[in-house]
Here is the input.
Amino acid sequence: MNSILGSAERIVVKIGSSLLTDQETGKLNRNWLQAMVEDIARLRARGQEVLIVSSGAISLGRRALKLPAGALLLEESQAAAAVGQISLAHAFQEMLSAYGHTCAQILVTLEDTEERRRYLNARSTMNTLLKLGAIPVVNENDTVATSEIRYGDNDRLAARVSSMISADCLVLLSDIDGLYTAPPSEPGATHIAEVSEITPAIEAMAGGAASEFSRGGMKTKLIAAGIAIESGTNMLIANGRAMHPIKALEDGARCTLFKARTTPVAARKRWISGGLKTSGSFTIDAGAARALAQGRSLLPAGVTATDGQFERGDAVSVLDTDGIEIARGLSAYSSEDALRIMGHNSREIEVLLGYSGRSEMIHRDDLVLKKG
Ligand code: GLU
Here is the structure.
């Protein structure tokens, strides 16, 4: 058993277009997908959470629209994606439901993963679906994404989604079983089993400019690996060509492991305490400060003052009764709503605001205590 895959609680599986669709006919590889879904059902049966990032919308749609072979215009690929995405989602739904699983479609754009408020919304939807036992099937929203603001490849998208949901393992199913020191067709090219840092030497192995624009080449996989390992996600590049590729991996099939350099929780906390500029603060009472020190969330009841102008998801400082910053976190409420609910029991939120928001002012996952 591949121990990384076996011990992961939350797994993201990225499936490329070349695996999903028959290269000759452009049709969906139903038998392959059927076997893949069986693998996923087994992961779920073991209690592991699974999110699928699936490509294939454009390649399925172009066939249905009888578009010519070769490069498509942006509007043609957008049209193809609109058509192909339905068949893709339908196939997943049909096959997953045969195993009693509910699948959910999520189409994201670059801004959904890069802009913090949208990021937090997308993250909480995905987390909710996973908690409810559904299997999210994610793709880029190619129909609205324009060339300047799109991922274009699902490798990087899958890495950002893995980071967003703090997945412990990302499996990129490819047409090759991992990274080689040189193109595998060259004599002397050797397979690399484990990478712990994306050094220039490793980057050089992914090939030069020729593959720069190719979707899902080794280059984008290395960028994905960089995102994954800095976010605490182990990433595997494995060959998905054969039937039951996940089962093969579990049984020890060769792959390249990009080893996480941190844990998902530590990575997220570093992001909160590091880069983000605070736009306001909460002053809290001594009881709340003790709760925070014990690793608990900040509840509205413990907040005695709210300063500054901020929106939900913005970073704020948490001050003790002496005005000293003891923590930083992402506020679950705007400053306006926070002013209304501070000092109140979480049960009163709905009455005070007219909607049922989160019970915490700052959830403990979004909170970092200052040292000392
Ligand atoms: N999002 C594209 C699609 O579904 C695929 C991107 C990729 O191949 O990585 O067709």
The chain has two domains: 2-267, 276-369. Residues 2-267 form a domain with the Carbamate kinase fold (CATH 3.40.1160.10). Residues 208-215 have pLDDT under 50 and may be disordered. The longest helix spans residues 74-97.
